[in-house]
Design goal:
The protein has a single domain, classed as Alpha-Beta Barrel (TIM Barrel), CATH 3.20.20.150. The chain has ten helices and eight strands. It starts with a strand and ends with a helix.
Length: 282
């Protein structure tokens, strides 16, 4: 299992000017750089691939789904913009040599409403329709799209892994798997190890190893030993990525409700987290 870190730990939006993070991430002991793709146009994808390969790092890509990138929105123009963003993200992942594009692909982050069942069905249908079409592009590019449930404060659509599984089954494309983030799962699932095991072998496409407060992994109350054992039971061999956020990045801090520092420094969050996960999963 490879250990990774998301660029949101340090910055948003990630751009070519942030490529100094690449050798630092390697020195900290990571195997994977996860690019949070706020805006692909400000990233030199070919140079990113060269630099990560030169530093012995793999790349995964994490989506940023703001209100204008919502494939289940009632406005067709917004649905199209969300689908176009996903296709662009797949092309970006292919260019940088990434094989995973992960995130809450089904809706906009922060879209939380109490809506009638009929509206839920319409939004689900729009989502499925878009994901079926996008799945073709992902398959052609050799990219897995990993669907991430979010907690109830960040979405009203998919909070549980079993809901994400239902969506993947309705879409019916081999391009889709499940993405578990332990921060969200700690809020919504009864047992994270049981949730992982219930997926079975081959369905877990991506994994975010996050502490219950998004601070340094290993310093909170997550059942890390149980999580490790469950990952081994389903023979997960992808990346375990630390995702956290800096309160200095205004937009992402607001979306994730990061109002205070979660570690002495962002570097310490990453460095100590890498050390803990290497010992846990090694």
């Amino acid at each position: 299992m490879k250990i990774g870190v998301n660029t949101w730990v340090w910055t948003s939006p990630f751009s070519t000017k942030d490529f100094h993070l690449i050798p630092k991430v390697k020195r900290m002991g990571f195997d994977v750089l996860e690019v949070a793709l706020d805006d692909a146009s400000i990233i030199d994808a070919k140079l990113l691939r060269k630099l990560t390969e030169d530093n012995g790092l793999s790349v995964t890509v994490c989506g940023a789904f703001g209100p204008t990138r919502d494939i289940s929105h009632e406005d067709p123009a917004i649905r199209k913009n969300g689908a176009d963003y996903m296709r662009e993200s797949i092309r970006f992942a292919e260019t940088v040599g990434g094989r995973v594009f992960a995130g809450p692909v089904y809706s906009a982050v922060g879209k939380t409403r109490l809506i009638p069942d009929e509206q839920k069905k319409r939004e689900w249908a729009w989502c499925v329709e878009n994901l079926r079409e996008i799945g073709k592009a992902a398959t052609d590019a050799g990219v897995t799209i990993a669907v991430e449930p979010l907690n109830r404060f960040e979405t009203d659509m998919i909070n549980l892994v079993e809901q994400a599984v239902s969506l993947v089954r309705d879409v019916g494309s081999p391009a889709y798997k499940i993405h578990i983030d332990t921060f969200h799962a700690n809020i919504e699932e009864k047992s994270i190890p049981d949730t992982i095991r219930n997926l079975g072998k081959g369905m877990l496409g991506h994994f975010h190893a996050c502490e219950n407060d998004r601070g340094i992994p290993g310093t909170g109350h997550q059942d890390w030993n149980g999580i490790r054992d469950a990952l081994r039971d389903v023979e997960y061999d992808g990346a375990a990525v630390i995702e956290s956020f800096t309160p200095g990045a205004v937009e992402i801090a607001k979306a994730a409700s990061i109002w205070r520092p979660l570690a002495p420094t962002q570097d310490e969050l990453a460095r100590q987290g890498a050390r803990f996960l290497r010992k846990l999963l090694g």
